[in-house]
Amino acid sequence: MADQISDYYTLPLDDWIEFFVKDWLVPNFRPVFRAVQWPIDQVLNGLEDFLLWLPYPVFVVVIPLIAWRVAGRGVAGFTLLSLIFLDLLGIWRETMVTLAMIVTAVTFCVIVGVPLGILAARSDRFYSFIRPILDIMQTIPPFVYLVPIVMLFGVGIVPGVIATIIFALPPVIRLTNLGIRQVQAELVEAGLAFGSTRRQLLFEIQIPLALRTIMAGLNQTLMLSLSMVVIAALIGAGGLGLTVFTGLGRLDVGRASLGGIGIVLLAIMLDRITQALGEGGRSKAPGQKGSLTRVFKGIVQGSKAYNEKS
Amino acid sequence: MGADTVTAGTDEKVCVEHLFKIFGADPQDTIRRIREGASKDQIYADTASVAAVADVSFSVAQGEIFVVMGLSGSGKSTLIRCINRLIEPTQGRILLDGNDIVGMDVEGLRRLRLNKLSMVFQHFALFPHKTVGENVEYGLKIRGMSARERREKAVRALEQVGLAAYADVPPDNLSGGMQQRVGLARGLAVDPEIMLMDEPFSALDPLIRRDMQDELLVLQQQLRMTIIFITHDLHEALRIGDRIAIMKDGRFVQLGTPEEIVANPADDYVSAFTRDVDRSRVFRAYMLRGDPHALSSDTTIETALERFASLGRETLFMVDEDGRPLGVVRRHDLERGGEKTALRDSLIDDFPSAQGSQELIELYTACATGLPIALVDEAGRLEGIVDPLEVFRLLGGGSEESAEQASASAASGDTERSAIQTGPLEMRRSDHG
To answer: Do you know which Pfam families this protein is assigned to (chain A) (predicted)?
Structure first.
């Protein structure tokens, strides 16, 4: 009956990978990976401390105000109700931890992804090099790289964020690349014809015109990182993911659902606000300051409003 | 052939020598084929290479408007982009003020674009994320000019095109014609020596296009830039160009003044374009200039009659001591009326006059008098006459003889040519009023 190759011989690829990771990568490169961990750790802890330090009332006033400035009254109302509801459910702390994780992950995705996207847009060779890597990153099940991540970075919230970054990085690279490539050839020609350097071309013309697409990529990255935080709980990341995960372990449907509801509400809030940021990039009249400035204005106005109230 | 016509001048601003741009795998092989005389289609069929610009040579004088006219696919847009190297030429030399820019390093090229060149695009290419003012400032901003200074310059450039009030508006809010004015202002703001215009008015409505052409000519009158202008519209080329090159399949089929091209098309391809040209707007009075043989004011009737007889003319002008025309004398008036004692009595002082630079269309009313038209120079002196019949003979166009005569007169006649070169715009302005 033996008519398959595997009846005689199976390729010991699993052993090879095991050897590669355990006996070569981990002992030789552990310090490198530890070093990578450091900035993420700093940002994450800082952010988490800040969010947990921030008095709840400030939060409930400031975030809806930002939402109002950026995305309008509807989103602001939804945000306000969601924040109150999250606190009512008693998962405020977990929500803040998750939020800190997501913001950290997205920040690093932008720091790494936007320059890579720009590079890919400028060089066809680099793009053809990075494309298969992005394909792999997007198709490989995250469970597969959780194990090496644990080996390299240990368990805990920072390795969870690293796993999230890897999972969520591709869209921002892809859409930055796309956005810059989509800038009309005549506009780039105009920039060059007046003697722009490549840097001036990038910052004066290409990035502003690609901003909307880049923001769409950012939005995608954000959504992906939200879906990743639950899985990251498997390797010790806390937050809402952990709530779901413990609920799952104890077959506690109620507890797991709380975590789920928290993530969904957070996702909707962040999605609407960042989408509006991207739209703002399109609809704003030139000369007006960008959406981010409006966000800061929103914060300032919000804090003023809060000061007046208290 | 016109392709090798290089008008040498002492004040050459741009000089292009044997320029090639080949899109394809083996450009050197394609260049060899072109030199052997292969056509563009043949080359494409054999090698899948496109010879966008094939052995083009020309030079443009300081302050000249040089128009390249061709249909789509003729290589004209590639040609203009070679001049600021938005497209890298495959072979040949491009001299700007005598410096070859082919092979210039990136930084040198950038500085050249920054300081000397400027470009106006077919679809305006305004930056949608910047206001009109910021668009116009762009070339100055990347030079590192301070915000206030460049704003001032931008507003001045916008005033030149009549859009100063729109400085803080996004360009999308403007109509096509206004957007291209902004494009023009952006090009002007950097005080370019050489302006490259790639079909700047092709995307505009006909009436607006005419306005813009006029406006460009007015601006050029003040600014005296060297302009290389691309168009697919021969009428536009004739209106704007000091000289015109007709381009087909990457080559120049003909290069000459508007008059030369209309009067004497190099081949069937060019004559297909010139056939429906309004010749009365291309040809100018000086092309028909005849010798005045003017009488002086103290001529007697007898000597006048002798002159009439010896010249075989029916009419003669009389001029004063300074050479200014006083009037026309008709031969049969003299022969008929014996009672007149002085030549002055039969003088018709209500005579038609024109300047050599005027278009023939402006001579129609003058022609209707039946009298010869006096051509006067700027000081009002008589420099020639135009026989009304000659006007219609030239406009009739069909006769080879008159066409040759016209082109000969357009090509020769140093004084007229120099007049055209030094002041083409004043002349042309006369009909735009």
So the answer is: BPD_transp_1
Shortest distance between the Cα of A192 and any Cα of chain B, in A, equals 7
Query: B129 and A200: CB-CB below 8 Å?
Result: no
Taking contacts as CB-CB distances below 8 angstroms, the residues of chain A near B141 are 204
Between the two ends of chain B, the Cα-to-Cα distance in Å is 38
Question: Which helix (H) or strand (E) is B117 found in, with range?
Answer: strand B117-120
CB contact A198 to B (< 8 Å): no
**What's the pTM?**
0.75
Q: What is the ipTM of this complex?
A: 0.72
- B261 pLDDT higher than 90: no
- CA–CA gap between residue B200 and residue B230 (Å, rounded): 8
Average pLDDT value for residue range B55-69: 92
Could you tell me where the DSSP H helices lie in chain A? 5-8, 13-18, 26-53, 56-71, 73-88, 92-122, 124-139, 142-153, 157-182, 185-193, 198-200, 207-232, 240-249, 253-283, 291-309
Provide the 3-class DSSP secondary structure of residue B382.
strand
Phi, psi for residue B317 in degrees, rounded to 5: -90, 150
Residue B39: per-residue pLDDT: 83
Question: Chains A, B: CB contacts under 8 A, how many?
Answer: 73
User: Over the stretch B93-150, which tens digit does the pLDDT of each residue have?
Assistant: 999 988 888 888 989 999 899 889 999 999 989 999 999 999 999 999 998 889 999 9
User: Which two three-digit tokens encode residue A260?
Assistant: 């789920």
Find the chain B residues whose C-beta atoms sit closer than 8 A to any C-beta of A: 81, 84, 86, 110-115, 117-119, 121-123, 125, 127-131, 134, 138-139, 141-143, 168, 170, 186, 190, 196
Contact status of A25 with chain B (Cβ, < 8 Å):
no
Q: What are the DSSP calls for B35-98, one per residue?
A: HTT--HHHHHHHHS-EEEEEEEEEEEETT-EEEEEE-TTSSHHHHHHHHTTSS--SEEEEEETT
Q: What is the pLDDT of residues A97-156, one digit of tens each?
A: 999 999 999 999 999 999 999 999 999 999 999 999 999 988 888 888 888 888 888 888
**What's the pLDDT at A6?**
85
Inform me whether the C-beta atom of residue A288 falls under 8 Å from chain B C-beta atoms. no
Burial of residue A100, with CB atoms counted within 10 A of its CB: 0-12 exposed, 13-18 middle, 19 or more buried: buried
Query: How do beta strands B99-100 and B91-96 pair?
Result: antiparallel
Are A194 and B84 inside 8 Å of each other by CB?
Answer: no
